[in-house]
Amino acid sequence: MKPLKIATIGLGALIGVAHIGVLGHLIRQTPERVIQVPTINIPSGTPYSSYKIEAGKHGYKIEYKANDPAILESQRSLDLTKSKSGFFGGNNYEDRNEYRTDQYTMEGVRNMGGASLPGEGKSAKNVECIVADAGARSQGAMAGTAISTGLIAPAVMNIPYVGWLVAGWANLLGQRAGEEAGSRVGSVFNDC
Length: 192
Description:
Shape: elongated
Number of strands: 6
Number of helices: 3
Distance between the termini: 105 Å
Strand order of the largest sheet: 1-2
Structural class: alpha+beta
Largest sheet: 2 strands, antiparallel
């Protein structure tokens, strides 16, 4: 039993010295032999930014794009349908549809294919006026239609044969007049 005890103690001492030697070797390594990973300070706080980092054994490359994507795209596509009907192909029908691709900037300005000046585009006031005008036109059209339906349409419905047609025209006229009046009133109240 004594030789087994001596062999176990010797093996433990050998493993302990080997561990200490490996630790000493790692601690005393020269900087040329140690591979250091670079510290990259990526800018933050900018919306719509993208980063692309490539690292290899010969170095690294960083590609940074602020305001990415700078151009937004919208695509629309439609079709063309032709048909013939009637006796001997008398009536021809065509349904034409278009294909359209638009590009926009982040501010919502549509690219018209040319350079733009710094003052061009939509300002917050212009957008506010457009929205206010659309709401005022809608409210005016509803009011004009309600007035013409309540006052004018019953009076012209009694015209023989065409009363229903004149009542429809009166409603359309009331809608258009109300839309214009609503636009004028909305532009006064919204300072547009």
